[in-house]
Every structure is written in C-alpha cells, then in structure tokens.
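Archive record
______________

***
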Amino acid sequence: MIDYLTAYHLGITASASELNYVDVVAGTAAVSKALVLNGTGDISGINSLSATSLTGTIQSAAQPNITSVGTFSSLTVSGSINQWINLDISIEYYWYATDSSSAQYYLSWILVFT
C-alpha cells in the first residue's frame, strides 16, 4: 500500500477514483474504464465507437482495407439495391438489324444511371 508521502514523492497526482479508470484487463473494453491495448495492439468488446476524424486504413469483416469513400465514377452491385432515392435514370433506345440482308429491325434499350 502506498501512503500519501510515498505517492507524492513518486509523482502520482491522480485520485483513487481516477486510478480506478485503468483497473481493466489489457485488450478488453469495460464500461467506464480506459481503453488499454493488449500486447498485440488490439482491443475487443467495444459495441460502439465514434470519432471526429480517423486516418489510415479502416478494416471490417465485410469490407477489408477501406481507404476512402469518395465519389464513385462506376459501381458494380451484386444483389439487390433497395435504396432508389435521388437516382436519375434515363433509357436510351437503339434500332438494329439482325444481319445486313434482314428486313426486320429490333428495338434494344440500355438503362443509363446518371
């Protein structure tokens, strides 16, 4: 047990309440405690974390190595798109013959997202 004089000479200025914030297992998040990395630099058990600014590469199980989320010049989607808000769509039609001697023409269309 450290008494007041020993703590003073060691330069400890935190209160007992403040010292209790670091009473946590390294690498495991706990409510109302400091976040302390484990030996490999990891922390588990965080439900939600917010920040004003993050730098570097963000990784998740579904999207490894997210480095930016700027404007897309193209997008490939696998599966359904459920949000069609603020999406401009135009349809361009083209006529074409099946071959050079054919008198039949067919209507083809291309869906263009802008």
User: Anything to note?
Assistant: The mean pLDDT is 72. Helices lie at 4-10, 16-19. The chain has two helices and two strands.
